[in-house]
Amino acid sequence: MAKIISVIVSGNPDSNSGFNKLVFYNNPNFDIEDKNYVGFEGCPHFYTIKMTPTHVIFKLVKNNVRSHGAVRPGSLAIAFSIPKNHKLDNGYTPYDVLEDLKNTFLAKCMICKDPVRETYEFNSPFVDQTVLDQVAAKYTISPVDLPERVMLTSGPVGYVVKSEAEIISLFRDFYYPEFCSYSEVVVADTVNQTSYVAIPNLSVPRIKVYGVYVDGVFQTSVSSEEKQITVLSPKSPEYYDCKPLNFTIRQLKDNGIIGVELLDSQERINVSTEGLATPRKIQYQIKFASNEINKYFQDHSNLVEVVGMKGLVPIKNLTFTLTGENNAEVKSGTISVRIQTGSKYTLNTFRFEGNMLKVMVEEKKVYHTSTIAGGGGRTPEANSPVYEVKIQLNERFRFDNDRNTLRIRLKGIGEILSANQTFVYNNKEKLYEGTFLIPKASVSRVGNPCLCFSTKTHEYSCSNVNMLRSDHCVLSEQHFKIEKIGFFARYQKLLTLLCILLITLLLGGLLGYTIAGGFRENADVEQEKEVSTTSPGDEDAPENSMTNDEAKAFLEEAKQELEKEDVAFDKIEEYYRRYKENQNIIDPIDSEKYYELIEDYHELVGYIQNGQFDEIDKICGGPSGPCPNISANHIRVIEKLEKTRFIAHYSEVKSFKDLEENCVKKEEVEKHVCPYCGPDMYFDTPVKLENHLKICKKNPANSNKGNNKKNNSNIFFAFGKSYFCIFVRPKIFNSH
Fold it and tell me: Each residue of 583-641: pLDDT tens digit?
């Protein structure tokens, strides 16, 4: 249903009743007050415009009006409204509507008493409320984008004096921004002395005035299409390189400009400053008090951190870069420096001097009894000589806690040292690193020193004395002998308690039995002799040692087994375990670097068993991926993995065969079924089906044609190279 205007007519047809509402049409949500517009009494009629947040109200005020049968002058006001962002259809203007409503009302409800002065008298003290329904109904309205214009509720009344022709033109486009300073605007062809405010220099017809909004905020108004508009980025020029944006309305209409939107009907220009400012990148150099300290932190870059409001700032070669407004943190003092606990230095103070971050540190005090680099010793030696040891662990290393800590032990004949050490992940090297200090005096008191740590499942030990006695020592996983902790060793305490409990119960039972007289000496019972099953030399033989020939055979076997299509994950992990236990023997003789194949498969299995689909997907990068040695058959399976199926089933996968069956989307294969052999006989191509039909024993074409014609119970159709068969079961009648 079309929308229509709302109409009100107010006046006093009855001289004794006062100014009242006479006509209502379409539920108007505005009112007409009995108002005396001073200075406009000499006009036969005049007009007013009021723009509210929801409607625009147009009113015609008719002077020289009398009540029915009265000489005393009265008044008549006719008004209608249009909702915001709507317009009259069919080219009508508010002037057309007001004149039509006025003329119809005068003709039906009033009598002309003086044509010269246009004096009218109500023809009855009563007015039919539906008198204008037919006229008002023909003025439909429709939505449209229009300028945002709202008058001030408490503003003064303004007025415009124009000729009738100019008034008609004004009502064609009345959305003047100048009107927004007033509560109501009177439009008339003449005026006498009045207190209302004149609106000067009003162009008729109206010249469009465009509002310029920068990032949603009003900046200025522009009426000329040739005037240059300049927009600047609000970003600080201290931290950004800013360039102005210059344009005209004409350029917008002709060519358009990136970042600028012209809404012509709304007389609005939206400008985005994105791209007008390029953030400045300022590089800062970290400087320590001496070259020696600088060299130390260059070699141990993971031990020094710069922290801003948004977290860690990447550091490379003791330099870091701040971008844009992040540089303001230097002035605000929100940039901080941290030295990791594994460092041989502690932080003292730091300060910025231009593009230089000066950091003052002091060497740690080292405790030389019962500790490694700061545990709980007795007497500190401020400058005692130390060994600096860095342990690097593979990124796949599984810690027993969320803090990534291990208890490092230095054990041997003599003093035993131990301390907790936190390992920090090095993004660049893809390793966990823990750096700590061991007092040289303590190491000298330990015979056959061995550096050890353990997880719940494995024991790691390094007894390379020469490496441990280097001032700066770096140990990776391959330097450690890895031994799996057996069941009894892992649960030693629990088993010991259970044994004690069992022995206590057994002794209690035996004691009770003895007291009851159950034990008797039996002199005839012979004592069993203990037979030793240990052969000479077994104690000296290492548990997991390999000869060079055995190591070569192991590598060949591992390569063949790991590249099998259905290799089980347990098999892969078993090869990895055996490799790690004999790494010091295997690595020197592995010219083909088969150990890389073992490690890559171990890493891949870890991703699969942990459900890390995105990491698995990276494997498809081939030689550039993280695991370049994976076989083509297994890469093929990985490439066809479907994420949703993988996430749902990865915990059930125990081999590459399981991975393909459970986590790969099955391809739909077109089946070409033999119409005579049934659904169990099908082929993947029409050609293969044709060849089969030529030799098919059940094909009637290959048997007696007479019998075929008599006994054939199938209806067979062929379309091109695709065959369809309808099987007809004959009905069998039994005679009795």
Answer: 888 888 888 888 888 988 888 888 888 888 877 876 665 554 556 788 888 888 888 88
Alpha-carbon distance 135 to 121, whole Å? 22
Q: What is the 3-state secondary structure (H, E, C) of 305-349?
A: EEEECCEEECCECCEEEEEHHHHHHHHHCCCEEEECCCCCEEEEE
**Within-domain flag for 73:** yes
User: In this structure, are 185 and 285 located in the same domain?
Assistant: no
- Report how many domains make up the chain: 6
| Alpha helices, DSSP H, located in 189-266 | 249-254
Q: Is residue 518 part of a domain?
A: no
Among the candidates 339, 363, 387, a domain finishes at: 363
pLDDT tens-digit map of 236-250: 998 999 999 999 999
> Exposed, middle or buried: residue 276 (CB in 10 Å: 0-12, 13-18, 19+)?
buried
Residue 718: pLDDT over 50: no
Closest CA to 412 of 456, 372, 465: 465
**SS3 state at 413:** strand
pLDDT at 712 exceeding the cut of 60: no
Let me know whether 560 and 650 are in one domain: yes
Helices (H), 434-491: 440-444, 465-468, 487-490
Domain with 483, as residue range(s), is: 368-489
Cα(249)–Cα(226) distance, rounded to whole angstroms?
Answer: 7
Among residues 363, 397, 417, which one ends one of the domains? 363
pLDDT tens-digit map of 300-346 = 888 899 999 888 999 999 999 999 989 999 988 899 999 987 788 88
Residues linked to residue 363 through DSSP beta bridges, in sequence order: 345
**Per-residue pLDDT reduced to its tens digit, 349-362:** 999 999 999 999 98
Beta-carbon count within 10 A of 242 CB: 15
Are 26 and 111 members of one domain?
Answer: yes
Q: Residue 481 has which token pair?
A: 């002998």
